[in-house]
Amino acid sequence: MSLRIVVTVKYVPDATGDRHFADDLTVDRDDVDGLLSELDEYAVEQALQIAEDADDAEVTVLTVGPEDAKDALRKALSMGADKAIHVEDDDLHGTDALGTSLVLAKAIEKAGYDLVISGMASTDGTMGVVPALVAERLGVPQVTLLSEVSVEDGTVKGRRDGDAASEQLEASLPAVVSVTDQSGEARYPSFKGIMAAKKKPVESWDLSDLDIEAEEVGLEGAWTKVETATERPARTAGTIVKDEGEGGKQLAEYLAGQKFI
């Protein structure tokens, strides 16, 4: 039986560009360039490696977002994923992590799965809670923040690296895992892969396809909200110390004044 792998990915604003909030304090995604979250590329890579090691496997990439989110799916397809699912609905605007986990879980159940792989967090929200929330909604084990992952005989195994030690973890399938940016460099799409991605299937679903009411998602259904947002202060020039025999003393005085020593 084919191993069904679903990778959850997110279309995020380019971190190198300016980010703005809309009037309702949601991230303005209309006037900025977007791309596949870099941390999700690691999840796609691990899914592809697991699929390559399996006798028979299929990798589906899943995203929730606006029309432009298809660009993230195409990137994942060009890396080697087999097919994609895009959940898009106007009522999703302003959905928080809890609402997103509901939509993802419903879509994953509808698609069918044995293993769900996510990045450790998105590069825009950086909350890192969605994989655990999805696992809870699906009622399956979760093995998060893995720097190494493999599947063998119906079991997912992985290594989680901490500051002082590493843990070897495993769980029976079906399961949800998340991987870190230490799990392995993501491959670059080849020209052949980019061309092939244009012909791979991308299914489009909305909330009605998942039996989700509008009140359960969006700003109305959000359990969390942004109260205020301010621009990051401009960087100021640092203190320049010219060493004319007193450099060491001046440095020590500066560090003491900042309470570093």
From TrEMBL:
One MF annotation (Gene Ontology) recorded for this entry: electron transfer activity
InterPro entries named in the record: ETF_a/b_N, ETF_b, ETF_beta_N, Rossmann-like_a/b/a_fold
Key words, A-Z: Electron transport, Transport
Cofactor(s) the protein requires to work: AMP; FAD
Matching Pfam families: ETF
Subunit structure: Heterodimer of an alpha and a beta subunit.
Similarity-based family: Belongs to the ETF beta-subunit/FixA family.
General function of this protein: The electron transfer flavoprotein serves as a specific electron acceptor for other dehydrogenases. It transfers the electrons to the main respiratory chain via ETF-ubiquinone oxidoreductase (ETF dehydrogenase).
Full protein name: Electron transfer flavoprotein subunit beta
Protein species of origin: Streptomyces bauhiniae
Classification lineage: Bacteria, Bacillati, Actinomycetota, Actinomycetes, Kitasatosporales
